[in-house]
Amino acid sequence: MLRALILGITGQDGSYLAELLLAHGYEVHGVVRRTSTLDRSRLRHLYEDSTIYKKRLFLHYADLDDPTTLRRVLTNVRPREIYHLAGQSHVGMSFEIPESTCELTAMGTLRLLEMIRDLPEAPKLFHASSSEIFGRPTQSPQDEQTRHAPVNPYGCAKAFATQMVAIYRESIGLFACNGIMYNHESPRRGENFVTRKICRAAVAIKLGRETELVLGDTSAQRDWGDARDYVMGMWLTLQHHTAEDFIFATGRLHSVQDVVEQAFKTVKLNWQDHVRTDERLLRRTEPLRLVGNPEKARRLLGWEPKTSFEELISEMTHAELSALSAV
Ligand code: GDP
Questions:
Q1: I need a surface site. Which of 50, 257, 258, 296 has the fewest CB within 10 A?
Q2: What's the pLDDT at 286?
Q3: Would you call 154 a catalytic residue per the annotation?
Q4: Domain-embedded: residue 301
Q5: Exposed (0-12), middle (13-18) or buried (19+): which is 322, by Cβ within 10 Å?
Q6: One domain for residues 206 and 231
Q7: 300 lies in a domain?
């Protein structure tokens, strides 16, 4: 039986990856943090299914800042593949809590590499890196060779972790890979990310529950893809015969304004009547021209982003409509 361990299983990507691995016949183990407000809503459909939970899906309490417990989970589970998706992933928040961001994202990854190194049969490791490692690159689009130049604490922590994964691959011989993930969204995206915030607000305004949407920089641009395509990329990375780093991106840039227009169009509202900007929501430094070239993933893994930006935003808006109409 193929056995995988997911760190960060309760997040957007972790929950989709768990579904994908279960569909491929894996036994899936997830690491969850013991917090008072543990949100497991993204996994509910799986652990309420008695044919899956505790039969092919198992959850374990551990954390990247608690090495003893994590080591115990690794020793007991003996996974063949580890998907490391855990950590504080909100860039804006990383300016407020830089130390804990680095503790989990940077040091946590190093600790995990050290634990894997000590196991008798080292499992393969996928590390979810981020386009934020590139910061304000001079080269556009970016590829696997682009120099790291992060501009926020989150990007800096990810750059450290990404480089460590490469070091453990090249000098220790671990099968350890970085997926350099550009922004990827879905109806399961956290509400503090801009796509979800906009889709949710457009629907709330449509339903008469809210009147306006307040945003920061609407000219900011990102390369936004569909999270479900990206978790497929994670899995393909570990099925490749050699350990490599890959960029996962769509290669297309859109602005926050484009998200606004698509979401409001989906609910047939005039965005001009409801959207305003507030400079208190501006970031200290914005990355620039973060757009990825997924050519290597296409060539070596046959990976392709399948959903267009317009389809993605309108699907997210429709999902909000179903969710909010039900309450
Ligand atoms: P990030 O790329 O991981 O920072 O993803 P986000 O979804 O949080 O932000 C994407 C972009 O949207 C950034 O450039 C933000 O500055 C911009 N943005 C503009 N208004 C907002 C807002 O109200 N909330 C968030 N989260 N981002 C905003």
A1: 50
A2: 79
A3: yes
A4: no
A5: exposed
A6: no
A7: no
Q: Known catalytic residue: 311? A: no
Q: How far is the CA of 184 from the centre of ligand 1 (A)?
A: 12
- Residue 23 CA to ligand 1 center (angstroms) comes to 33
**CA dihedral for 154, 159, 165, 171, sign (positive or negative):** negative
Domain containing residue 31? 3-185+226-248
Strands 213-215 and 246-248: unpaired
| Mutation probe of ligand 1 site: the residue of 101, 105, 194 with most atoms within 8 A of C-beta | 194
Is the alpha carbon torsion for 60, 62, 64, 69 positive or negative?
A: negative
Assigned domain for 298 exists? no
Ligand 1 atom 13: residue of nearest CA? 220
Measured in degrees and rounded to the nearest 5, phi and psi for residue 94 equal: -65, -20
HSE-CB at 223 with a 13 A cutoff on CA atoms is 25
What pLDDT digit, counting tens, does each position of 154-189 carry? 999 999 999 999 999 999 999 999 999 999 999 999
Q: Does ligand 1 have an atom closer than 6 angstroms to the CB of 216?
A: yes
| Cβ 215 under 6 angstroms from ligand 1 | yes
pLDDT band at 24 (very low <50, low <70, confident <90, very high): very high
| Domain match, 161 and 17 both | yes
Mean pLDDT confidence for 279-283 = 89
Q: State if residue 91 touches ligand 1 by the CB under 6 angstroms criterion.
A: yes
